[in-house]
Design goal:
Length: 220
């Protein structure tokens, strides 16, 4: 009750401005941070929780359960920025190698990789090793017909952009669509450069446009 009263503004007339009467105390004591689009008690709790989690993750992992050790290892790997900078694109190139490389970032993919490349095998690798669903989404969940058991669900995955609107609508959607395509082109060029593959801007543009066409067809 005390917190509710603290967040109210009893000096306001509820018949004229009920919002100010009910929430005026909160508005007077809190300012939306420049980094946020909203601010509520849940955002405050989240910030406090992140501080607590940071402290937990930075403590020694001796005697921890395996799950806690994994969380601390992941946290340390993300915080080691000098090693991240030193490794550069090597982790990404290794991930691409595991799934049969990337045609647009290869000089002779159709000759050296395509004959032995299996879509089914590589989709399973991306799912199991990288938790990335492409073309098909598979997950285990409660059976809708029998909640006492779990079954495998097969579904469509999420799109590269937030929703199908981004692939067809104009205005801001179109600007995001153009930026999305340019982002793909930029990444492909960077990877080709890191792999010492000759520069071929027209080839990259053509291939990434095909990717965009395929995503658009899937969205449709």
């Amino acid at each position: 009750a005390a917190r509710i009263i603290q967040n109210m503004d009893p000096t306001a007339d509820p018949c004229k401005d009920f919002y100010q009467y009910a929430c005026g105390g909160w508005l007077n004591r809190h300012v939306i941070p420049e980094t946020s689009s909203r601010y509520s008690i849940f955002d405050i709790l989240r910030d406090e929780l992140e501080i607590i989690l940071k402290g937990v993750l930075e403590t020694s992992d001796q005697g921890d359960r395996e799950a806690f050790q994994k969380a601390k290892i992941l946290y340390k790997s993300c915080m080691n920025e000098s090693l991240i900078e030193q490794r550069g694109s090597l982790p990404l190139l290794e991930a691409l190698r595991m799934v049969g490389d990337w045609p647009v970032a290869s000089a002779d993919w159709t000759k050296t990789k395509e004959p032995s490349w299996s879509m089914e095998e590589n989709l399973s690798i991306m799912n199991s090793r990288f938790n990335k669903r492409v073309l098909i989404d598979m997950f285990v969940w409660n059976d809708d017909r029998d909640s006492s058991r779990h079954i495998i669900y097969i579904d469509q995955p999420s799109l590269g952009m937030p929703s199908r609107d981004y692939y067809f609508n104009g205005g801001n959607y179109q600007r995001v669509r153009e930026a999305y395509l340019q982002f793909m082109i930029t990444i492909a060029k960077m990877i080709r450069e890191d792999k010492n593959v000759s520069r071929d801007d027209s080839f990259v543009q053509e291939e990434m446009s095909k990717v965009m066409e395929l995503e658009t067809e899937i969205a449709n």
